[in-house]
Amino acid sequence: MMGDDANLSVTIAHIVQRLKGTYLHSQIERHAKECLHQPEIKLESLKEDVRCFLKTSGWERKLQNAVYRELHSHLPPTHPAAPPEHLKEPLAYMRKAQATWEKRVLKSLNSMSSELGVPLARMRGAEEQKELRNKWNEMGTDEPDLSSFRPVYAPKDFLEVLVGLRNPNYDSSEDVSSRSHWGLIQAPLNVRDIPQLRQVFTELNLTTGQLGIDDNAHIHPDLFENQYVLVGKKVVEDQDSAAAQQYSRRGCSNGLRADLWALILNSTNQPPDVMHYEQLKTGVIQHDLLVDNLIYKDVKLTASNDDYYFVFEDFLYQVLLCFSRDTLVLEHFKYNSATPPKAYIQGKAGDEDFAVVYPPNGVIPFHGFSMYVAPLCYLYNEPSKLYSVFREMYVRYFFRLHSISSSPSGIVSLCLQFERLIQAHLPQLFYHLRQIGAQPLRMAFKWLVRAFSGYLSTDQLLLLWDRILGYDSLEIVAVLAAAVFAFRAENLMEVTSLASAEAVLADLSTLKVMPLIQIFLFATSM
Amino acid sequence: MASKVKWVTDIEKSVLINNFEKREWTQVTENEDWNFYWMSIQTIRNVFSVDTGYRLSDDQMVNHFPNHYELTRKDLMIKNIKRYRKDLEKEGNPLAEKDENGKYIYLDFVPVTFMLPADYNLFVEEFRKNPSSTWIMKPCGKAQGKGIFLINKLSQIKKWSRDSRTSTFMAASSGKEAYVISLYIDNPLLIGGKKFDLRLYVLVTTYRPLKCYMYKLGFCRFCTVKYTPSTSELDNMFVHLTNVAIQKHGDDYNHVHGGKWTVSNLRLYLESTRGKEVTNRLFDQIHWIVVQSLKAVAPVMNNDKHCFECYGYDIIIDDKLKPWLIEVNASPSLTSSTANDRILKYNLINDTLNIVMPNGDIPDCRWNRSPPWEALGNYQVLYDEEQALSESSERDLRSRSGQSLGSKGNKGSAGVRPTAATWK
Questions:
Q1: ipTM score of the complex?
Q2: Is some CB atom of chain B closer than 8 A to the CB atom of A138?
């Protein structure tokens, strides 16, 4: 008990520290000062009256939302004696694997730079700056020659690393008889099975109304949808992050989703945010980075050819280029197992005094990265708003999909969870696919890394991401991947090669995700 | 066993032929007996022409109405819509109500348009009211974006002026084609900064009574180049025209998606960024203008019972989410630019045939033209005049029997929509 209290006060002190000096802090202070002139504020009950004022004028709610956001991502270590790297990743072998992977990625970036003779960064000339400023809104019309640029890595390179993960303290020969050797992931992590998932995802059960199921055109909207949307409007009106998150578990209606997500993420798009975005834009215009070419290439290879997202090509450049310059992203490395790569000022290689984080946000984009942004373009048509929601989504969720960690939402756990779910509930299928050389994870990995973006139709993808936000967890992605295999199990049992198995799973754009997840979790016999 | 349908087409498109073959119909030549002829608009002219035309028998169907051009030629469509409004106004129909600026409240759905050279003087008058506006010139009889250009100065169309001793009659012979000139929608809704128009497919099986269907799988056609309303770009047609035939020549044309976005994507985007209510209102308005355009031509259309027609409606949405009818195509392109496009067009023909040739049997032009709802596929009934009339007379009966005494709200017939969103 004593320990809990101590922890709590550490947490409080930590959050107070973080909120000090923020825009919100100064706003609240200013309004508190201004309210002193109001007649209902009495000197004898000053503290109470100001508090009351802050409550009724909505500032208390805003403060609550800010605290809620801090609680989400900036928790101090649970044990005061724990070294800070334990907040990044408690398991040493995971940290080591991540570091090795980073070295490899950085090396490939550096060799690209030297082979192509393209510097990691350079200042643009005045003329070039002017030109870029003019075509900021139509960068997609530019067709630079990117043929020599290759993505630094693709998901399948990353999968090989995950497959090679071993815990040196774990003797796997002990349970040689168990199923755990069937799959590709051999890291011993604790992942939830179906009974545990049922407890976590309790709102998704068969009898609870859901968007994505109970708003079907054949069901009269009075039965569920209309009332549910009314509640959603109330949630948006109340501006309460926690309520919005709870609401999102059963899905957000299209008309309210943009507001609800921004509320959950506490992405308020205040004047300083807009200004920050403009500064990033200036940064893009001033400096040319090697990673810009990778971003360009990625958008061209993915979103530009996508039936759903090609329309937003220019928004994607804007958001991703700004993102690469955003040093606020660096904060998330406190709790991300990854460490931002460093580059050295010319001629000072290896000298830590001349090391700079590269790219400035510390994130090297890989093949498919732009698909994290693309679906959000359906929700926000204002670039600065789109940007702040994306950044928040990234530092909360997406980074976990390409960092090696033991987090339950991390890619390793998701892979393992996916394999375990199929092993436990579709053992014949798993065995069959493994026999023909079509390991399920080899086919599902790309879905997991992108949280299904680019594979589902956008409406379905948004329904899935509603649940990611609602449950504050990426586990639902692994569940859906397993559910897709369950849904196509009959066809998959008939295939005899990896290519034909891949063909069965090639087009997911007709799937309805919520019925699949619900049936898999709640209507599968155990 | 019923004998097989004998089909002809003068449009060698796989989406057509595959559909006929799937039904195991028999291909014949146009000189043989045929039951079903999917023809170009050039051919339909001959089939119904006074000199060479012939009588169609009861077991023959064609895919155009004889004078479809009343709707599908830009100048005639405008003429018919203008006449329709005047007629309604004369009747004192509430639909023809105008606002304080003299604009129709419910019937203002085509951009201000004039014929050239015939209406040159009227145009000049209008132009001078708003000299900074941009206008778009389109030849009356051409499609796919051919011959279109933008103007913002009178001098650019001097040769269509009447003072240069030309009359409408002379226009054609002197190499001056008849044109329509329309106010250019210079505030189009942009998505991702790009301009687009909507292509919707509408099937009409009879004009009197009017029976029409909307295809659910329309699409948006995007310009590949960023939209800029600046006049310096007036010559860059890629900015302004969304026709695939034009866009295909742009450097940025993408052969995977062809610049096409489904209507369901549009709906999701609009619901998400603008809200569900305004999105519903927009789609209701689109349906409304399609029906009104068909009603406008119904009285002059030769409602030949051997005919049906699948139209390609081109609609532009402005940034206030108001839809504008730009034009109607009689022979929407059946060329497929992408794989998805081919599937869409194959299904469009399939669903069309299921409606106009029930059960794939030998046609009988006396059929009642009410397919069962299972046969509709991706079509949805847009307007069924017969049903609407019977419903409204039922309503009249009910109100006369005293159930809603004192309510004058029932005056309008079905399809009359004093307020948006609920006219269906």
A1: 0.91
A2: yes
Strand partners, B191: B194
Distance from CA of A221 to the nearest CA of B (A): 14
Whole-prediction pTM: 0.89
Is the Cβ pair A143, B251 closer than 8 Å? yes
Q: Do B277 and A253 touch (CB under 8 A)?
A: no
Over residues B395-421, the pLDDT tens digits come to 777 665 544 433 333 333 334 443 443
pLDDT tens-digit series, residues B220-273? 998 765 555 555 556 666 666 666 555 655 555 666 677 899 999 999 999 999
Q: By residue range, what is the domain housing residue B79?
A: 73-108
Which residues of A fall within a CB distance of 8 Å from B257? Answer: 305-307, 310
Whether residue B81 sits in one domain with residue B65: no
In a domain, A57, yes or no: yes
Q: Are strands A287-289 and A121-123 parallel, antiparallel or unpaired?
A: antiparallel
Is residue B261 within 8 A of residue A313, CB to CB? The reply is: no
Asked, for residue A275, whether it belongs to a domain, the answer is no
B252 reaches A (C-beta below 8 A):
yes
Lookup result for tokens 């019925």: A515
Of the candidates A147, A183, A154, the one whose C-alpha atom is nearest the C-alpha of residue A450 is A154
What's the gap between Cα A318 and its chain centre? 19
In this complex, the residue of A137, A143, A305 whose CB is nearest that of residue B193 is A137
Contact A326, A361 (CB under 8 A): yes
* In a shared domain, residues B49 and B81: no
What is the number of structural domains in chain B? 4
Relative to beta strand B210-215, strand B194-207 is antiparallel
Distance CA A74, CA A17 (A): 11
Same-domain status, B145 and B204:
no
Mutation target to probe the B interface, by most B beta carbons within 10 A, among A138, A300, A301, A311 is A311
Q: Are residues B41 and B61 in the same domain?
A: yes
* Same domain (yes/no): B299, B357: yes
Is B406 domain-assigned? no
| Omega before B209 within 30 of 0, i.e. cis | yes
Tell whether B402 is covered by a domain.
no
